[in-house]
Amino acid sequence: MNSAFTPEMWRSLLPEIGLLILALVLLIFDLIWLKQPQQRGKWLGWMTSMGILVIMGIAAGFSVPQGEGSLEWGGMLRFDEAGFVFRMIFMSAAALTALFAIQHEALKKRGEFFALLLISTLGMNLMASAADLMLLFLAIETTSIPLYVMAGFLTRDDRSVEAGIKYFLFGAITSAVMLYGFSLIYGLTGTTQIYELKASFQSGNLPPGLAGLVILLVLVGFGFKISAAPFHFWAPDVYQGAPTPVAGFLSTASKAAGFAVLLRVFQITFADQSALWSVMIGLIAAASMLIGNYLALAQRSIKRLLAYSSIAHAGYILIGVAADSELGTLAVVYYLMAYLVTNLAAFGIVNLIENRVGTDEINALAGLNRRSASLGLAMLAAMLSLGGIPPFAGFFAKLLVFAAAVERGMIWLVLVGVFNAVVGLYYYLNVLKVIYLQPPPEEKIAAPTTTAWRVALWACMAGILLIGFWFAPWYSWAQAATSAIWVY
Amino acid sequence: MQFPILSALIFTPIVAGVVLLALPAEQKDWIRRVALAAAVLILLMAFKLYFSYDPGKGGYQFLEEAAWLPQFGISYKLGIDGISLPLVLLSGLVIFSGVLVSWNVEDRPREFFSFLMFLGASVLGVFCALDLFLLFFFFELAVFPKYLMIVVWGYPKTREYGGMKLTLYLFIGSVIALVGTLAVYFGSGLRTFDLLALEQAGFPIEFQRLWFPFVFLGFAILGGIFPFHSWAPDGHVAAPTAISMLLAGVEMKVGAFAALRVGIQLLPEGAQYWAPAILLLATINVVYGAFIAMVQTDFKYVIGFSSVSHMGLVLIGFATLNRDGLLGAGMQMFSHGVMTALFFAIVGMVYDRAHTREIGSLGGLVRKMPWAAVGFIIGGLVSMGMPGFSGFVSEIPVFMGAWQVAPLVSVVAILGILITAAYIFLVVRRVFFGEIPPELDQSVGDVSGKDKLVIGMLSLVMILLGWFPSLLTRLIEPGVHSIVALMGGGW
Q: What is the predicted pLDDT for the residue at A202?
């Protein structure tokens, strides 16, 4: 193995180095700049967000992988388009979340919050490009541990603390199960390198029962990250208890990271077992859609509703994975981009309403259209995008996952999916009904929006619309990521 | 390069809708003016299309094409033929009338007219689309204006139920059609959504028979096919007047049109296989809808169920798969669209003044609102197929077509027309003639000038068409001709 450092190695790690430096700068800045705590929060948020944008710019300029990608750092990292596209997804989510966090009273006063956000993003970046199970596990933990802290960040709020602990316990158990799966893999094959494992898992090399068990154990860990049923129980409580911008981040970036590893490990390492896991994932997808959508019907808290809807969306996205085809992978990536802007917008608006009205009941949205027509429209766009209605992002994303399954002849899964889309539309429309029909409450609690919040919401709206009808650039990105995974 | 008139037609309401949302909410007069200007522009462009379409040449004209997502086979492709052109004209008429009758909406007119414009863009887009994906895109674009307009501005007692029921029924239909559409996309092996290319794909006969029901039924739910029709009366009654007009007048045609264009034109052999089943369901539509309309006590429900009955005639025309039947279906789509828009407009005018729609508590309104009474009677005559009105020239070809494949259907459907005559006469007598209840005598006044314009215009169209059916048949004939050519023989 060549031990000398090559420029390619540094290029493959450039965004992560940037994020680490940014996090350290923020911590130091937070320590030495003690004046005016109110102003400081604004500065920290803007610095995080702009810093990430700069890093994204640098990444786009200097660390675009060439060709079909390569293995770096002694086979630890895969430097390819898939990693690149997913990094961009995570960093966009982090940049938007930092801006939304400025609107949150408790978060913006604490520099640690933004540092944790950056470290978690760093972990996700590594998840998307890890080519070795050891690094993958470390990356998952690097992602998760800051997220546990962020979920329980409001130490005076019982629900937030509960959310942090619950998230931690679930995460620790599923990580342990997944790690057990990893150790079995190592024991059976003697390697942890994802690309070398492919050969060992080729049919005949392992008893099928054992391979199935390993796949199941690994799926537990990944299923937790993407909040798919039956590993979803943490999601509603955590989303409700966690600070709202954190819930938005969890439901978008963290979920996307889960899908990134799911795609890489399953499509590459377990490629020969695809007949087996395709059925498993199809069942998980169907269960997630059914459980998510039907339980969402009964929710009175908008955050819990979004949590169940997020479980259901994990199900829709899993259709793309279950399809086990290039179109399916492409659909997953496209869906994640669409879901990112949509759900961040929804949580951003909920954050504002929660600040104003002091509750996360759906009824807190009553009369939003009369109170602020533009806010009502923004929520309309977010809800319809979640429901899969054009011209918003969710429409084409849903169409792509369904198309992938139809292509593979998985008609049963498509039918489950489309009928769930109908159920989903029902509760999204109910939210719109509250916004447009119900009279606004008497008292108006003033909580002016910050510039940061407005910028972030506008960015999300632009994303929802552009992904919704200007398909070409996003499709090409998703295609690039797909071909990097399907090289093998 | 010629002026892209179809794009202009579709984007006028979209731009108007966005501009309206950007206007300040207090500027109610400006909001109405912008909406009216857009509606007039749409109507003018529709007429321009009507006069410049060359029926001698036939086929798809005013073609426009631009790349949208070539990797996935999606293009922005527009064009109209003799089947869709009358429907474009119909949409122009109904959108214009809808703006006029909603002139006095006081609750958030900005959102009202904006959503109305988006709904208009959706229907125009479906009629002009020559790309299956584009058609679907516009088809689903209608979901939120429909729902929100019914729920926010609809009839308070039933709007939440009616709006949700309508929206979910139609969404179920559209997702079923989506599955079929995707199957067609992959089954063709062409990786394109281009309707003209898919028409030539030559699907295997088993494939056509398997997927035809998905596509046809999915869209036909929006056309009100039995037993999935019950959203129509509930939704139409709950909707505000302009939306009832657009939903029954145009949206139901969107469903029927998409079922024809995607279902029958792409999968003709599937259509031949399933035609008897469709014919049976459509016949039930005609008779059952008429019977239920007869026993309604609510003025608006009568019209709601009459739409179910009349759309049955359109579907019978489709199911015959022959020249006469399809010609009649094309005519009936236009004729029924105008007629039902007029009916719902008049029902709305009556309700706005009398504040009740119970047939029992209305009466003698001919003395108070003669225009409305005359308009309703004209609509009624159209509806029962009286010669000299557009209903006659549309229904006769349908019956002729049905006679060729199943004479019994013609007989039963003509009985349905008899029932129609009965309920129309009943309603006319009870609502517009007889004694006027004393409490209405004081409060009810005549309709406004704008209302008269709507009644006059829509009535005139139906009479003109009754005397000069060639105004439309010259367009529809070549369109039907190319569909029949796909079929290679009827049943």
A: 81
The whole domain housing B92 covers: 5-487
Nearest Cα residue to A308 out of A290, A286, A321, A320 = A290
Q: Which residue has the tokens 């990786």?
A: B191
Nearest CA in chain A to B135: A390
Q: Do B108 and A369 touch (CB under 8 A)?
A: yes
Question: What is the reported pLDDT for A1?
Answer: 47
Query: Does residue A133 surpass a pLDDT of 90?
Result: yes
- Find tokens 């279950």 and name the residue: A322
Q: Does A297 touch chain B (CB under 8 A)?
A: no
What CA–CA distance (Å, rounded) separates A486 from B28?
A: 57
Among A297, A471, A477, A483, the residue to mutate for chain B (most B Cβ within 10 A): A471
Whether B172 sits inside 8 A of A419 (CB atoms) is: yes
Residue A426 pLDDT level (bands cut at 50, 70, 90):
very high
- Shortest alpha-carbon distance between residue A368 and chain B (Å): 13
Q: Which chain B residues touch A if contact means CB-CB below 8 Å?
A: 21, 25, 68-69, 71-72, 74, 108, 110-111, 137-138, 140-141, 143-144, 147-148, 151-152, 160, 164, 167-168, 171-172, 175-176, 178-179, 182-183, 185-186
Contact residues on chain A for B72, CB-CB shorter than 8 A: 471, 475
Cα distance between residue A326 and residue A480, in whole Å:
11
Tell me how far apart the terminal alpha carbons of chain B are, to the nearest angstrom: 43
Give B294 to chain A, closest Cα distance, Å.
Answer: 33
Q: Does A180 contact chain B (CB < 8 Å)?
A: no
Look at B144 and A380 and tell me if their CB atoms are within 8 Å.
Answer: yes
Residues whose CB falls within 8 Å of the CB of residue A312, separated by 6 or more in sequence, listed in order: A288, A289, A291, A292, A293, A296, A420, A424
Q: Domain boundaries in chain A? A: 7-485
Question: Any idea what DSSP says for residue B25?
Answer: T
pLDDT tens string A315-335: 999 999 999 999 999 999 999
- As for the ipTM of the complex, it is 0.93
- Model confidence band, residue A227 (pLDDT cutoffs 50, 70, 90): very high
Residues of B in contact with A389 (CB under 8 A): 140-141, 143-144
State pLDDT tens for residues A61-88. 988 888 778 888 888 899 999 999 999 9
**What does the block give as tokens for A116?**
């944790």
Mean pLDDT to the nearest integer, B412-418: 89
Number of domains in chain B: 1
**A458 lies within 8 A of chain B by CB:** no
Mean pLDDT of B470-488: 88
pLDDT exceeding 70 applies to what percent of chain A? 97
Distance CA A206, CA B364 (A): 88
For A353-371, letters b (16+ CB in 10 Å) and e give bbbbbeebbbebbbbbbeb
Q: How far is residue A28 CA from its own chain's centroid?
A: 29
pTM of the predicted protein model: 0.95
CA distance A365 to A376: 9
